[in-house]
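ugh ok fine here u go
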Amino acid sequence: MLRLPRFRMIEPTTWTEAATLLREHGASASDIAQGTPNLPVMVVAGGTDLFPNMKRRQFTPRVLVSLGRVKGAREITNGSLPAQGPPMGLRIAAGATLTEIAAHPTVRAKYAALAQAAGAVSTPQLRNMGTIGGNVCLDTRCNWYDQSLFWRTAEGYCMKTHPSVVCRVAPSSPRCLAVASADTVPALIALGATVSVENADGRRELDLTELYREDGIRYLSIGRDDVVVSVTLPDAAGWRSTYVKLRDRNSFDFPIAGVAAAVRLDGDTVTDARIAITALASRPVAVDARVLIGTKLGDDAIAVAAAAVHRAARPMDNTSGTITQRKRAARVFTERALRSLRDA
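structure:
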């Protein structure tokens, strides 16, 4: 049995208190998603990814700042049309569980890709605990990294936990090639989401794509003293969206290729389009979908968009499935997703 290392749990009641505690216990703005077991303090929400990583000694923080008692951490605020200003969309607090998001009537009706992605994460038990904030910040994965300490000690470490060691997937690579595998992130990107982040210096808004870096170790652009507070989706009038994924075991596995697509229609003509992919690089990738604008989502236009996704996919041999299978799946799943939006 794998056991957790010893740690101290602190339970703040506000986002500001949580961010302040991170700074007080040694988290640094310059410490950007460091893949090291020696981080002094970390944030935990549902713990569905962090606790297994701690059991494998990928992280051994002395202090955990829990978001479970933060006021309003699970709110999902319905969009509305204010008296003045542009239409409002949907604000989802970072502590909202994946089950709550997948079942929420507004998410299901207006942001289908997000409902599908949240509902496709792991098992019901883990969706009941896992949060949108945790999925947005999900650690990158690799067949060499996601093993027990005993296995990694016997077989050999990799640069994600020991920077002086080579990448076991590509020994000549100057960086870690661990893969980003969050399901909700490509859906959020395709839906035009922004994210609210807070640290001890204050709160700021980022486009969701700004949150990620093409680096398996430093995969987030924010510091370890930052807390993701909420995700905001713009008004979805006229938009259709969907998410499809490939995984070994269709009941609970991480994606080995995932595609989210969203199109805005005026009648049957596309006026805007977004496509994003996951599990095919060290960060989620937004693919230029402007080729679809002005079309009626005909087969030729879909084929061109799918070819662009195929070119953007850069899978490595660091997870299940072959490189060829996963790259081809990016094309095929894009075609399926766009045809489903056309025929909806």
